[in-house]
Amino acid sequence: MSLLLQIAPSDSLTKVVADLNLGQLQEPADVAFTFETIGWPILAILMLILIIVFSFFQIRKYKRNQYRREALAELKKVASGELDFAYSMVLVKRTAIQAFGREKAGKLAGKEWFTFLDENAKNVGFLSVQTEIEALIYKSEIPEKTTQEKIIVNAKNWISTHGAR
Fold first, then answer.
1. How far is the C-alpha of 86 from the C-alpha of 133, rounded, in Å?
2. Which residues contact 141 (CB under 8 A, 6 or more apart)?
3. Mind listing the pLDDT tens digit for each residue in 107-125?
4. What's this model's pTM, rounded to 2 decimal places?
């Protein structure tokens, strides 16, 4: 309070501040950054458990989808001409049996089979090429190139996106 009383109205603020002898600026001590609290080990253990659980599910998913990768590799051989074109439908049937079981997918044929395929995958339209596929399977008639491409695309989409229910 005595400082305020000493300031006269004619004194400037800079003169008052210059007259004050505050000394050296004192900085606080450095804050120690260590992992000594219990929260850090708990967080590390939780993260490790999450990584292990996530890895387990990813490995399981990878192993479960092995049949898809194998079927897609064989479908590439069909598309390149290494395997007979009719084998594309054998791949789809084999994949369906692995995914849905022999009792459900194995006994289907004709329109029921193509409806089943269309209903259990995304972006698939086997019903639109049903007659060409049946001619291929039962009469060994190879369809036109555009129809072949459509069948290959449908087979690839079905193998990639089907979902067992």
1. 8
2. 135
3. 888 889 888 888 888 888 8
4. 0.67
